[in-house]
Design brief:
The chain has 2 domains: 179 residues, Spore Coat Polysaccharide Biosynthesis Protein SpsA, Chain A, CATH 3.90.550.10; 79 residues, Serine Threonine Protein Phosphatase 5, Tetratricopeptide repeat (Alpha Horseshoe), CATH 1.25.40. The protein is 47% helix and 15% strand. It is built from 11 helices and 8 strands. Strands 3, 4, 5, 6, 7 and 8 form a 6-stranded mixed beta sheet that branches. It has a two-stranded parallel ribbon with strand order 1-2. The longest helix is centred in the C-terminal third of the chain and has 21 residues.
Amino acid sequence: MLIEAIKSVFAQTRIPDEVIVVDCGSKDGTRKAVYEYNDRIILLQSKVSGASAQRNIGISHAKGNYIAFLDDDDIWHPEKLKIQMEFLEEHPEIAMASSENIHMGYTIRTGKLKWIHGDLYMKLFMESFIHTSTVVIRKNGLEKIGGFNEDYKRAEDYDLWLRISRSFPLAHMKTPLAWIRKSETCLSNDKIDLRKTAIKVLKENYEPKKIPKRKFRKRISDLEIYLGRNYMKAGNKEEGKRQFISAIKRYPFRTRPYRYLLRTLLK
């Protein structure tokens, strides 16, 4: 998969100035795959684990004014960097550009480019819609907000996008510019930790002056509903019930959590 990802980088119509691969002691032939590109790739060996730490290491070694991320199981569309870089160069006030993504096997057509841009903090708070492999960000803006939070093992990217959106205008393109692989290994416990971390991230990045309390409660309630369902799938009925009750107390104006709670009582 890494080889496919690297090939998509060098197939760009606008080739990046440098390509950095951060390897955390893998034993799957990563070093051999990278060395085939000789001096076209900077390979960094890391002893620390976690996506946040890996990305921060890559960022700290990058010399350019822009950073683009690509996970090793994803692929860029050939025009990705060209489209995003041209937009960022034409809009110096925008700190970060992202795009939609699509699963492997589907076709991407870059016809009419539709962007949303400006203050996207509320939209991003209410919906996590940015995938890491679609992002290009100005390095100076990234340095000002402090990079990825290495305390987070999941939702670390969502935390970073929220922190950036609180301080800078962003841009997001509705056309996908990256292919991602649908994970077949995400267990219920992984989803539980993801939802719990996402709730923590939202609470830490909540600005009452920008987001009404009612919207905040609804957003957290939504995640508690998902978390309750994840606990039920994992066989933890009591914790699932607690999450549904919390979701109802936080935002009692809809039927979904009541239905899920009723199911826990009937089982």
